[in-house]
Amino acid sequence: MPGPDRPANVPLGARPLTRDEVLAVARADASVELTQAALDAVGSARTHIEKLATAEKPTYGVSTGFGALAVRHIPPDLRAALQRSLVRSHAAGAGPEVEREVVRALVLLRLQTLATGHTGVRPSTVDTMARMLNAGIAPVVHEHGSLGCSGDLAPLSAAALALIGEGEVRDATGRLMPAADALREAGIEPVQLAEKEGLALINGTDGMLGMLVLAAADLRALMDVADLTAAMSVEALLGTDRVFAADLQALRPHPGQAVSAARMTALLADSEIMASHRGPDCTRVQDAYSLRCSPQVHGAARDTITHAETVADRELASAVDNPVVLADGRVESNGNFHGAPLAYVLDFLAIPVADVASMAERRTDRMLDVARSHGLPPFLAADPGVDSGHMIAHYTQAAVVSELKRLAVPASVDSIPTSAMQEDHVSMGWAAARKLRRAVDGLGTVLAVEYLTAARALDLRAPLKPAPATAAAVALLRERVEGPGPDRHLAPEIAAAEDLIRSGALLAATRRFA
Fold this sequence. Notes:
By secondary structure, the chain is mainly alpha-helical. It has two domains: 10-204, Fumarase/aspartase (N-terminal domain) (Fumarase C, Chain B, domain 1), CATH 1.10.275; 212-510, Fumarase C, Chain A, domain 2 (Up-down Bundle). It is 54% helix and 5% strand. It has helices spanning 19-28, 36-53, 79-90, 100-115, 123-134, 153-163, 179-185, 197-202, 206-236, 246-249, 255-267, 272-275, 289-292, 294-316, 340-368, 391-407, 429-460, 468-478, 491-502, 505-510, and strands at residues 10-12, 32-34, 94-97, 138-139, 142-144, 168-170, 176-178, 324-325, 331-332. The protein has a three-stranded antiparallel beta sheet with strand order 4-6-7. Strand 1 (10-12), helix 1 (19-28) and strand 2 (32-34) form a beta-alpha-beta unit. Helix 4 runs antiparallel to helix 5 (123-134), helix 9 (206-236) crosses helix 11 and helix 17 packs across helix 19. The longest helix has 32 residues, at 429-460. This is Histidine ammonia-lyase. One of its GO terms (biological process) is L-histidine catabolic process to glutamate and formate.
């Protein structure tokens, strides 16, 4: 989905980041700027860490090993090697590269936590990380490696590895290259890690959180698309918009439901097709659920997104690390790195994604079935029997819906103990986030097939004219895809509809109506 326009520098450390700021950095390559308050807080916390580094009493992450190896006290001359070894050994990801927008979000969110002054890193380390982000250098992060507990360890370690000039990155143009070369070209000196810094760089929920923010923004837009394609289907199937009336919706005051119903009412306003069957000659009493209940399902999805955004906002206001440096100088271990709050909502969002898609598939099927489409030709074909129309486009849609149902199975109910049973319960939130991203893409495909099919069905209702809003949607599609006619290669047409949805062009063309 489209990102925001590139804004001015995003300030770090002064206050929690907003979701819009995360999107701006992740998708629009906005720059970041460390506030003086952030640098002061980071410097103050570092003073406490340096005192602990010289103390006889061991402190986890400062003068000890990690995880199940925390019982070993590390002498001062080995502590820089300890932090470097931590990053190298934990950068153990596997699988394909993670998307650039996810990597930028991950780096930004870790940097924001460092800027709070609760992690104990040096100001110079925070400054170098900000410079790397602003230079457009994206560490290569792999698909697998996070259990969503003790932070997104392998993904964040890949980012930390780049910071010390090791591993691979992609530069601002997308070119794959060694991190050392990319830093040198940008005039950035690699970080030489000191006590606590390696641990602070990798012990956060930043990958999960970044993907939640991105997915919630995409789903907000896709719910608007779903309202539009549903309205087009209701219109094409000679359904009624009376069930979307505000007084009926008020009897069940879920906020998302009211929004979707109001949008569908506005999108169907002034439709000749709708007006053609409002009179006493219409014998239909009730529409099928996939038409009549669209606001209820889309609205429930909207309310689920709102809940997920609330969780994201709380996490954006958090400083996740272990141990943390408190305002009074204490350095305390904690469990705030556990990803359960994010994992649950990431899993939760996959459920309405599957259900909204399933309802769209039912509407599409209805338009293609001559027994239920109220006068439309079988499969919307030009010459049924010779032509198959949208028969197999529906197959593609059904295949994606089936996959979305599998992706709705929660990841967060699983846990595999690791680190010699020290980390004996994990959230699997990273896995929940990765499958949600696939689900969001799938929903876009499903809605594209409904859009393509409903547009053809509306054309076949001529000479009756659709509503101005739905007519605008059809007209936009016709700039890329021809109207009804003999069978054509459908895959490019589905891709064109997907592009109009994902680019934001479809919503832009209809925004003035609802």
